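Input record, target 12 of the design panel.
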């Protein structure tokens, strides 16, 4: 997760007194506003539960009101604290951590628990309406959807809930995967203020070999089928005319399982395709189309001599970082709020090179990298997807990534287990 506290706000309470809140953003999206005393209570709770020795430093209380510079210093220290705490697996996977963020979201949005209906969509637009509490966390809602469509408990966590936004009259894009420290109902309501959004059920794994686990179950196979159809329709999967005709024939015959086995052999199946962006590879200001999947970031570079394709394997990335500075192009500052994703890549033996992408979807790209690496580690350690009955149990595994201390505008991600 990418945590940041970019700013603060002054709030008036009902009695007219003013206090300061720190605005927490997660994966580039506003999540909640938290007072220092709430942070301090959270820190105290963590000390009791996990011990002080495991925790990073926490900014101390001040007796006198803070000056603007002291307030900014506290903001930075709290940002660093939440970033570092999120990398301690026993804490990040705990009810205490998720509960702190979930409760803070509810309080910030002034949301009281109440019975509501929530619409969740399949990739083909089919709507599933579930009855939930407005404050239910993501896993609760996912399990409610799975129960509604009679998806086997064995396969529930092969899927996830994703926030999707409408880009144009005919296209949409994935914003992010919803996490367990948030309420999908609240997150959707908040996102609707910035345009048309909805929640979609999609598979959450990267290795298409996992498809085989789902093909003999009617419900899970149908979920895979409608997603595969949608990915083909929106050209996320590359098909020739001959391949398209074969897929159409399989559709007409209702041969869903055969359709899925054939579509798995096609280029970019199981990938997420991002909006066109810019890179400094092989030269500055190169236009590129990025696809994440098959254990790599795939670059389709738009060069003077034509399109060139190259794949950067996650197993050869030593680390990556996200920077929040705006992207400069042709000497001018871009006001679009683009982010930078840079990764250090093992190009050849003893030759590492930094490659940078400039994209509004940099954080989503980073989360895709993290998901692919974590899945590789899960397979390497012989672990399986969790099931509803496993909730509350923690393996103590942090996956593969260790987040390093960051500057106010930069977060590093590094892993050590896979790089040769």
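The sequence produced for target 12 reads:
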């Amino acid at each position: 997760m990418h945590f940041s506290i970019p700013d603060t706000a002054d709030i008036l309470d009902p009695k007219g007194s003013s206090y300061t809140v720190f605005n927490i953003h997660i994966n580039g999206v506003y999540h909640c506003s938290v007072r220092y005393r709430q942070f301090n209570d959270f820190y105290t709770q963590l000390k009791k539960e996990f011990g002080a020795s495991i925790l990073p430093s926490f900014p101390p209380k001040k007796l006198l009101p803070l000056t603007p510079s002291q307030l900014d210093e506290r903001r930075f220290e709290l940002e660093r604290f939440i970033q570092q705490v999120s990398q301690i697996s026993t804490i990040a996977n705990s009810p205490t951590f998720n509960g702190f963020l979930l409760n803070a979201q509810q309080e910030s949005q002034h949301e009281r628990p109440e019975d509501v209906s929530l619409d969740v969509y399949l990739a083909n637009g089919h709507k599933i309406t579930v009855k939930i509490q407005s404050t239910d966390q993501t896993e609760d809602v996912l399990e409610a959807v799975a129960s509604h469509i009679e998806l086997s408990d064995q396969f529930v966590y092969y899927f996830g809930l994703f926030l999707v936004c409408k880009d144009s009259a005919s296209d949409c894009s994935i914003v992010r995967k919803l996490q367990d420290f948030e309420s999908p109902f609240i997150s959707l309501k908040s996102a609707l203020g910035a345009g048309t959004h909805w929640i979609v059920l999609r598979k959450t794994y990267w290795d298409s070999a996992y498809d085989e686990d789902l093909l003999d179950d009617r419900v899970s196979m149908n979920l895979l089928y409608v997603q595969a159809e949608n990915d083909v329709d929106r050209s996320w999967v590359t098909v020739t005319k001959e391949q398209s005709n074969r897929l159409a024939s399989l559709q007409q015959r209702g041969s869903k399982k055969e359709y899925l086995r054939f579509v798995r052999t096609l280029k970019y199946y199981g990938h997420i395709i991002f909006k066109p962006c810019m890179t400094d590879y092989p030269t500055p200001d190169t236009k590129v189309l990025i696809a994440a999947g098959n254990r790599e970031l795939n670059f389709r570079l738009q060069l003077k001599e034509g399109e060139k394709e190259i794949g950067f394997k996650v197993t050869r990335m030593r680390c990556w970082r996200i920077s929040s500075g705006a992207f400069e192009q042709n000497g001018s500052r871009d006001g679009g709020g683009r982010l930078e994703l840079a990764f250090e890549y093992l190009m050849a033996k003893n030759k590492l090179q930094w490659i940078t992408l400039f994209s509004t979807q940099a954080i989503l790209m980073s989360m895709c990298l993290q998901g692919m690496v974590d899945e590789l580690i899960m397979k390497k350690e012989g672990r399986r997807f969790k099931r509803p009955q496993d909730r509350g149990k923690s393996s103590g595994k942090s996956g593969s990534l260790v987040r390093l201390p960051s500057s106010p505008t930069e977060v590093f991600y590094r892993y050590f287990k896979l790089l040769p």
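The two ends are 25 Å apart (CA to CA).
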